[in-house]
Specification:
The chain has a domain at 68-163 and 201-289: MetI-like (MetI-like fold), CATH 1.10.3720. Helices cover 76% and strands 1% of the residues. The chain has helices spanning 2-45, 67-97, 102-115, 119-137, 146-182, 187-195, 200-216, 219-224, 242-252, 257-290, 292-298; strands spanning 57-58, 63-64. α1 packs across α10 (257-290) and α5 (146-182) packs across α6 (187-195).
Length: 300
């Protein structure tokens, strides 16, 4: 009995040490990636009067401003979230309220199918169907621009957000179904009055992954956004995102000052993604500290 007591504590630490051994290399690789991009971006950041944080991208004249690309990436990602997140909440809510409905089975099959479609297929479909349609409806537009890219990216991010929301909310709904029913609440009342208000973690996860997918996608902005490095003034204007900018410059330049400016673009793109993830997690923990009972009741 004494031997068992002495062995169990050491054995129980093995999974923890294994997980720690897997997590540490990930943090080291992320730190190395940040350091690599920052080191090679330093000459661009301190390149005299032609600051990279300007709104002018004219490499032939020595102007390497990436502000229009940063604005394009952020605007496209935020608008994509504004369009796809409410739709994801509504679709996942319908599936949770009607789990045995025929439409729910159809939605599940469609969501799984959409998650497996390569991004280039979304781009080709939008290029052949959506762009001519926008060109016909809005004669002042060529079809390529912010609106076409926004609609295609919304379709791309929607399945991921639906799966995250539904999987996390279903566990909590099943857990509280019996209690809510005993109080005379319907399934929709349990979902809207108990589950959704107490699920900041599920919404935060969906927002972070949806934003990361939107801001990090390259193929759709490259094919649909028009790729003009300018500040858009309407949904029909052409934009260039950071990812599309990196792809375009990388395919035509090597070893030049224009090529070196890509390191600053990559550093800014990584910083935006990490900053949003950190801010979202901070807000989530702040909410959990202010509402500990609500947060604990939503845990599956």
């Amino acid at each position: 009995m004494q031997e068992t007591d002495s062995i169990l504590p050491a054995a129980s630490r093995i999974p923890h040490l294994c997980l720690l051994g897997l997590v540490i290399p990930v943090f080291v690789l992320i730190a190395l990636l940040f350091g690599f991009l920052f080191w090679f971006s330093l000459p661009v950041f301190y390149s005299g009067g032609n600051s990279i944080f300007s709104g002018e991208w004219q490499p032939e004249q020595g102007h390497f401003g990436i502000i229009p690309m940063i604005k394009g990436s952020m605007l496209l990602a935020v608008l994509t979230l504004c369009l796809s997140f409410p739709a994801a909440v509504g679709i996942s809510g319908f599936c949770l309220l009607h789990p045995k409905h025929r439409i729910t089975s159809l939605v599940h099959g469609m969501v799984r199918f959409m998650t497996g479609i390569p991004t280039v297929v979304y781009g080709l479909a939008a290029l052949m169907l959506l762009v001519p349609l926008l060109r016909t409806w809005f004669t002042q537009s060529s079809g390529f621009g912010l609106l076409a890219c926004l609609l295609a990216l919304s379709l791309l991010t929607l399945p991921v957000m639906i799966m995250i929301l539904e999987n996390q909310l279903r566990e909590s709904l099943n857990q509280h179904q019996l209690t809510g029913t005993s109080l005379g609440m319907s399934r929709s009342e349990i979902l809207t009055h108990i589950i959704i208000p107490c699920a900041p973690q599920a919404f935060a996860s969906a927002i972070v992954l949806g934003f990361g997918r939107a801001v990090g996608d390259t193929m759709l902005p490259l094919m649909l956004a028009g790729n003009a490095p300018q500040n858009p003034e309407s949904l029909f204007d052409s934009i260039r995102t950071l990812t599309a900018h990196i792809g375009l410059v990388l395919s035509t330049e090597h070893g030049s000052a224009t090529y070196n400016s890509l390191f600053a673009s990559g550093f800014m793109l990584l910083a935006i993604s990490v900053s949003l993830t950190v801010i979202t997690r901070k807000l989530e923990r702040s909410y959990q500290r202010r509402h500990p009972q609500a947060s604990s009741s939503a845990q599956p």
